[in-house]
Specification:
This protein has 346 residues and is an alpha/beta fold. 25% of the residues lie in helices and 19% in strands. It has a 7-stranded mixed sheet with strand order 4-5-6-7-9-8-10, with no helix packed on it. The chain has a 6-stranded mixed sheet with strand order 3-2-1-11-12-13. Helix 5 crosses helix 6 and helix 7 packs parallel to helix 8. The protein starts with a helix and ends with a strand.
């Protein structure tokens, strides 16, 4: 046979075989697209390490297949707004003008106001609340979360304090209560332990605190306010009577404690209930007894004290976000030393 003819026949055979191979590959690819395993991020698919079967052996629907999809309807997932909480303790005395100066700072702050006890000097009488506290901090009374101090209890039954603040100070008939601000759970306690049946875990207040923490166990961020600090470098020093508060709050992963009583500003590193530094699970304590009463110095320095400001009137402003918070000490003297920072909730 002519060599040219043989060559042409060979080329035809090669072309025929190549065509068969191309058709077979296309069929395999089409089969893979229509009957092969789905991506694990597709609705209804089974993720790695999961059988995809419910307790009865029936295929369990995936979260993406059953949960509402806000983006599909144009809605954005809602979350609590940021809130501002500002205040101090050791506040009003008719013999000083300092509480007027600190209250002037509050007027410009949005959100909620707190007090950390010793609201009206010297004895928390109805008259002292009306004549000393009301003209100054009383200007923001309608948005105040009050806490009682030892001077407020100098009047029998804290009658001046309770009479002035009314249900805001005792919404449930006790001088301790809680509320929610944005994403935060805020607890106000009464550290005048001898006046209220104790502060231990078996006391009425201790049992209430345990129940309140359990009822709000899903809160990402928790803040507690009361008067006497567990740890302090100030004149009064540490107060062991409120140790049970710390024990319960640490166990519940609370984040921040605000106190007064010592007339100064002091911030501690996160600590456990025994006063050992614990930046992972501990609670930050800030003492802000700078609301207007006469200021004092620091006779000592306690472990884990990170900053101490003596001789400066001012208020503490907290900005409470969904998963973290900012703090800033606002001094009356705009040129004075201040303190500020941010931290994540547990």
């Amino acid at each position: 046979m002519d060599r040219t003819v043989v060559r042409q026949l060979g080329l035809l055979v090669v072309a025929f075989v190549a065509t068969l191979l191309l058709l077979g590959g296309a069929y395999v690819m089409l089969s893979a697209q229509t009957s092969g395993p789905r991506r694990t991020d597709q609705p209804g698919s089974i993720g790695a390490g999961s059988s995809g079967l419910g307790p009865s052996g029936i295929a369990a629907p995936s979260a993406s297949a059953t949960a509402p999809n806000p983006s599909a309807s144009g809605e954005k997932p809602s979350q609590p707004p940021d809130v501002v909480l500002t205040g101090a303790g050791d506040i009003a005395s008719c013999g000083f003008n300092s509480d007027k100066e600190t209250s002037d700072l509050l007027i410009d702050q949005p959100g909620t106001i707190f007090t950390a006890g010793d609201n009206a000097y010297e004895d928390g009488t109805p008259e002292q609340f009306e004549k000393c506290y009301d003209p100054t901090w009383g200007r923001v009374k309608d948005r105040t979360l009050p806490a009682p101090g030892n001077h407020d209890w100098n009047t029998q039954g804290a009658a001046g304090y309770l009479g002035y603040f009314g249900t805001a100070a005792a919404p449930n008939g006790t001088t301790w209560y809680s509320t929610d601000l944005g994403a935060w759970h805020v607890i106000v306690l009464d550290s005048n332990c001898a006046k209220v049946g104790g502060c231990g875990v078996t006391s009425p207040q201790g049992r209430w605190l345990a129940a309140d923490l359990a009822a709000h166990a899903d809160s990402r961020c928790t803040l507690a306010i009361w008067h006497h600090p567990r740890f302090s470098s100030g004149e009064h020093g540490d107060d062991a009577d409120v140790g049970p508060f710390w024990t319960q709050l640490v166990a519940a992963d609370a984040d921040l404690i605000i106190n007064g009583h010592d007339h100064d500003y002091e911030r501690f590193a996160p600590q456990n209930a025994a006063g050992k530094e614990d930046r992972k699970n501990g609670i930050r304590e800030i003492v802000v007894g700078t609301g207007g009463a006469g200021l004092r110095t620091f006779p000592t320095v306690q472990p884990n004290s990170e900053i101490r400001l003596a001789g400066e009137l001012g208020v503490l402003r907290l900005t409470l976000h969904v998963v973290n918070y900012d703090w800033e000490f606002l001094p009356v003297d705009s040129h004075a030393i201040t303190d500020y920072g941010s931290a994540l909730c547990h």
